[in-house]
Amino acid sequence: MHNFVRAGFEVTIHDLKPELVADLVALGAKSAATPRAVAEQSDIIASVVMNDRQTLEVFLEGDGTGVLTGAVPGSLIVIHSTVSPALCKQVAHVAAIKGIGVIDAAVTGYRSDVACSVVARTSVRALARETVGLFQTWRRLISVVS
After folding, report:
1. 2-142: CATH class
2. Edge-to-edge strand order for the sheet containing 101-108?
């Protein structure tokens, strides 16, 4: 996220570690109290968590604070976590009902705060026209960190 902020992109962040949020806010990012609040302020919502359980909580649970509660039709979710294909399909199914696209884009490699490579595969058969545009924007954004 540091590279996105440094490149001038508008970034809204939610993290369980306040020091990570503070670092990004100091660079110009906005903070959000919940994943839902991030989604309400974002066209592209990227998530990097540790496992299936955390991904499920961030997107589908959280007592009304999850991403899919705040995301609007035409937005795009990018899952940058190493999670099961079944979970990505579950998130994509629920998102598709709301007109939201999902990309499974696992991050591989690590150098400082920079992802070394990203492998993307769409988790839904067809993206809405608005979401295709966001996918192209995501591809341009990811070039900032690759």
Report:
1. alpha beta
2. 44-47, 76-79, 101-108, 117-122
